[in-house]
TrEMBL record:
GO molecular function list: peptidase activity
TM regions (residue ranges): 7-26
Protein known as: ATP-dependent Zn protease
InterPro entries, per database record: Peptidase_M41-like
GO biological process: proteolysis
Keywords assigned: Hydrolase, Membrane, Protease, Transmembrane, Transmembrane helix
Keyword Ribonucleoprotein: no
């Protein structure tokens, strides 16, 4: 069962427990929380086996989306990826700011910024990649964490980004002792780029918040894709 489905199960157990405790005070029939719990468990099971966890991801992301800070963190996080990719010459092909948008576009997980990474994939297939390309992509992957840290003084997202970096380093045969060094170094590199281009970064955040197209986002940065 996927992590999101497990989260739904945890939510259902929590709701059942709360309803049992508060039900007598609210004149709530025992059947109501029971039906709700079975419904959530049924959704979780269907999601796990039929939707590969995507439904649970969309549901939990939808709940989190009621928080204005959560939405603000996401757009700043993804704008960090977008701007650093642009600065390092990696083409951006699209972006999403929610799991629902990602699902509609056929993207996995909660979405984010999509890159034209065909050259990277072809080099990884043969287990060899230039040092320059590795540095560029590692910096882009860490740019979301760097952006959150720059704006909010900490980062809540970025676990998938870290996993991408570690996965590539593993394929290339790097030792585990190198992982944390690379994470810190490239996060710092990305943060420096964002600080040096702060006005462009803020303009991009505003453009992405309005769901501006990739082409128009590039225009905000002074280029045409």
């Amino acid at each position: 069962m996927s992590q999101t489905s497990l989260n739904l199960v945890a939510i259902s157990i929590f709701l059942m427990t709360v309803s049992v405790l508060l039900g007598p005070f609210l004149n709530l029939s025992p059947a109501v929380p029971a039906i709700a719990t079975f419904a959530i468990l049924g959704i979780a099971t269907f999601d796990s086996f039929s939707l590969q966890g995507k439904g649970g991801t969309i549901f939990l992301d939808w709940i989190a989306g009621f928080s204005s800070e959560h939405r603000d963190r996401i757009v700043h996080h993804e704008a960090g990826h977008f701007l650093v990719a642009y600065l390092l010459g990696i083409p951006v092909s699209g972006y999403t700011l929610s799991a629902w948008e990602a699902w509609k576009q056929g993207q996995p997980g909660q979405g984010g910024v999509s890159f034209d990474d065909g050259e990277l994939a072809s080099q990884l297939e043969v287990g060899k990649i230039s040092a320059q390309m590795l540095d560029r992509y590692c910096t882009v992957w860490m740019a979301g964490i760097a952006a959150e840290t720059l704006v909010f003084n900490n980062a809540e997202g970025g676990s998938d980004d870290k996993n991408k970096l570690i996965g590539v380093l593993t394929i290339l045969g790097f030792s585990e002792s190198v992982y944390q060094q690379k994470l810190r170094f490239h996060t710092l590199q990305a943060k420096t780029l964002l600080e040096e281009n702060r006005s462009s970064y803020e303009a991009l955040v505003n453009a992405m918040r309005q769901r501006t197209s990739v082409e128009d986002c590039h225009a905000k940065l002074g280029v045409r894709s």
